[in-house]
Amino acid sequence: MYPRWLRALLDGERPEAAPEKRFLLFHVNFDLPEEYADGHLPGALYLDTNQLEGPPDWNRRSPEELDAALRTLGISHDTTVILYGRDSEGSADEKWPGRRAGQLAATRAALILSYCGVGDLRVLDGGYDAWVQAGLPLETVRHFPTPVPAFGVAIPARPELIVDLEEAKQILTDRDGAALVSVRSWDEHIGKRSGYSFVERVGRIAGDVWGGSGSDAYHMQHFRNFDNTMRPYAEIASSWEEAGITRDKRVVFYCGTGWRASEAWFSASLMGWPGVAVYDGGWYEWSRNPAENPIAVGVSVKPDADRPAIA
Which residues pair with residue 204 across a beta bridge? Predict the structure, then answer.
């Protein structure tokens, strides 16, 4: 979804592929309401990822919690939900760098909402930054959602989109028909660093496949162009194919806690790949029990997935 298309929709026009029914626009981030207050797209509501996932493991919340959160946000299963984040501020050196990884937050929300059963989910390509660079207006008026009485379907309506520990282990046993794909940075993959201040152990899930990522836990340069828009599908698919990651397999992505994996899932979903999912626990869960969860360290084959070069 492009900024000019969204502007036309917000102006009451009917651009090509406009939502058939009610739509809601959300500014998404992790625990940073002041960013929303500083400026957001006209009419946007605020969505904190803490409403959809939470401690101690930062996996998706229970079906009951998700149902309550979505009703409070005014989302029913047949609502078109448009999501975007802001990536223009912050760095990996901050105390909470994930609070500025807005587009990752948006795709994380997209995954969980799809898992719940929202049928029409869209993400603004390039997010807040693309909107501003296009010269389009912002506002500071705070908008509040109108709760709905019911979500409309039982949660999760699409449980196959998120897998847990035991299914992740099963994926590893089917090399021909499935792949557990890491989208952690290369330094995380080979065990040079864990990627997170709250994760001590380094390494990767033994038997996984590296599918590209970015410079650290909060960036996804392998999946984006230099202007932060989505990289062409053909380029992503080509780099995956070199690593044996193909659409005919059950492909499950993982990262540290699910954010980067959600962006990879979103890209594969837009390509029409039928069997893609996210291992929600990721490295954070897997690494806590090395006695039962095999870990590998060291250099493995690195596919040519880093085009365009990391800026």
Answer: 296
Distance, CA of 138 to CA of 290 (rounded, Å) = 48
In this structure, what token pair is assigned to residue 268? Answer: 């594969």
Neighbours of 43 (CB within 10 A): 13
The torsion angles phi and psi of 161, rounded to 5 degrees, stand at: -80, -20
- Check whether the bond before 137 is cis (ω within 30° of 0): no
> Is 255 an annotated catalytic residue?
yes
Task: Enumerate residues 6+ apart whose C-beta is below 8 A from 231.
Answer: 222, 223, 224, 225, 267, 308
The pairing of beta strand 178-182 with beta strand 162-163: unpaired
Q: Record the pTM.
A: 0.93
Closest among 114, 123, 94, 111 to 32, alpha carbons compared: 94
Non-local CB neighbours of 279 within 8 Å, separated by 6+ positions: 162, 163, 164, 165, 167, 168, 171, 180, 252, 253, 254, 261
For the stretch 71-115, pLDDT in tens is 999 999 999 999 999 986 555 566 555 667 899 999 999 999 999
Distance between CA atoms of 31 and 35, rounded to whole angstroms? 9
Angstrom CA distances, 226 to 3, 231, 266, stand at: 17, 9, 19
Alpha carbon distance 188, 115 (integer Å)? 28
d(CA 228, CA 221): 8
How far from 293 is each of 205, 207, 217, 296, CA to CA, in Å? 8, 11, 22, 10
Catalytic residue among 163, 255, 276, 277: 255
